């Protein structure tokens, strides 16, 4: 729940910022000179890109959470079996061991979204966020029945 609240607050702050920047872009356009209109259009592009990125990220999070809920209902969520250091950080050797098992599981069933979901969690635990995101995107695509690029 805390993560959802944090995400909602961050999204609200970003939307406020985009509206603020957008209003400045409109003000520049209303000035009517070639330079201010050009700058105004350029300023308006930034909130559009930001809103698009926020929307895509929100869709990704919702889909990943839906998969997690479905996998939880099936009893297939990965169990946290990682060893931790006294500081609470994940032990690297433990993460590598779990990752190796998840990768082998995914190689054995490459068309199963569940294995890709668990692999994404293993990547996340190993602090490899870009690969975790790609694995989760693949899990989402497989779940939705969309073609997956190799």
Can you summarize this structure?
The protein has 150 residues and is mainly alpha-helical.
Task: Give an overview in words.
This protein has helices spanning 2-31, 34-74, 92-108, 113-125, 129-144. It has 150 residues and is an all-alpha fold.
Notable traits:
150 residues; 5 helices
Largest sheet: none
> For the residues shown, what is the average pLDDT?
90
Derived structural class: mainly alpha
Shape: elongated
Tally of alpha and pi helices? 5
Report the β-strand fraction as a percent range: under 5%
- How far the N terminus sits from the C terminus, by CA atoms, comes to 35 Å
Q: Which spans have pLDDT < 50 for at least 5 consecutive residues?
A: none
Q: Tell me the total number of β-strands.
A: 0
Assign a percent range to the helix content: over 70%
Helix/strand order: HHHHH
Rg, Cα atoms, Å: 21 Å
Compile the SSE list and pairings.
Blueprint: H1 2-31, H2 34-74, H3 92-108, H4 113-125, H5 129-144
Helix pairs in contact: 1-2, 2-5, 3-4, 4-5
